[in-house]
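INFO  loader      accepted 1 record
INFO  loader      residues=462
INFO  predictor   begin
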Amino acid sequence: MNLPNERLALRGAAFLLIIGLLTPSAVSALTYDPSQQTSLEPGTVTSPANGSTLVSVQGYTFQGNTNPKKPARLVSVDERGSLQWTYDDSDNGNAWFFDVDPLPNGNLLVSSPRGTDTVVFELDPDTRERVWERRFDMEDTHDVDAFGEDELLIANMREWNDSAGVSEDRIVVYNRTTDEITWEWYFKNHFPADTDGGYNADWSHVNDVDYIGDGRLLLSPRNFDQAIVVDMESKEIVERLGTDDDYEVLNEQHNPDWLVSENGTPTMLAADSGNNRVVEYAKEDGEWVRTWSVGSNTLSWPRDADRLPNGNTLVVDTLNHRVIEITPTGEVVWEYYATWGPYDAERVAHGDESSGPTIRDLNASGSYPITGSANLTAGGNESVGFAARAESTFAGTPLEEPMSGLSTRLSHVLPWLRPVWMTPWDLFSAACAVGVGLTATGGELYLMRRRLLDTFRELFEW
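INFO  predictor   done
INFO  writer      dumping tokens
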């Protein structure tokens, strides 16, 4: 046996395998077109929208620096997907954009975190000038809603009391005229301290608060996997959809909406982000029953869903970097790509929340795939996403369950970290190349262990 020749052959094979695994990433890097990846463009438009569509694009900011390849901005688009205007607020420092709401006077209410603060302002869409603004000592606030003439409803997440080791996450009503908080509600008073693994700096991650009438608020504590209704007078939770870690119902949801069917049935529509779908639930005999599900294995981390008066649903498909209007059976009739990471979308003519019928009123209950997308590459969109492909690859094997959870989690986290030119499969191949390299290096070190030990002894013996 000629051991050195065999080792040389193994080294060569490992080298070629590593080169092969890294080739997709190299090709993607060389063919990357920055203008395409930060583009704003229409996809499928078979049915023109009713007026303008407003999109808030989160972008990516890390330690106060915005990645120019992952820009944050507000975008206004016309009926057929032509760009009307953009607003990036670059003159006022690095910003993220989350909730944006049309106001009755035609202006926009915008929530825009800056570092550890959040700036809330009213924007004139015609002049792109601010009418007023307030800066709050509140970190990463996702949702602020107008509440009456001069008050704001604020979802105050990440309110961490470091000295006490307690989360102070809360909902507040703030009066702009008196500059005072006039009402507040704390999650710690209504949830066990061990919820979601216990208090931490991002405990509830409450991403939405809506006033739904009759003195009630609809809240979305994302990390608790549930949507709740709170009575403002008693401060009691009077409705609850989902429970912590029960991912069959909701999994880190965003922006739930409250609907009522023609026969008075309470209904919730939600972007079920962690499950890559949009769902609707109706309350029957005291229990919440799922009546509609759309987009599993196609959507990627959806974060907003609004029912339109025509019965269609406007969906923000965040990590496919698009906004789509779909029919009750999942057909795309209007689509717009807006990198990087859209968060909220509003059909301006219809206000800031759902204004259409329930799925049951439309006689369209069921589970549907999404069809008819243009499948453009602006956000790396695939007809079947990375998580779904990985899940199908390991289906029927002992690795099915752990790989399903891992691939879904990675598909939601890695896009924020990987280079914009690298697809999920490029990243997977690169990770495999690193694994092969580490294994080959480990093997070499093992085979050379005696020589290395002898050298070590010679260097350090007295």
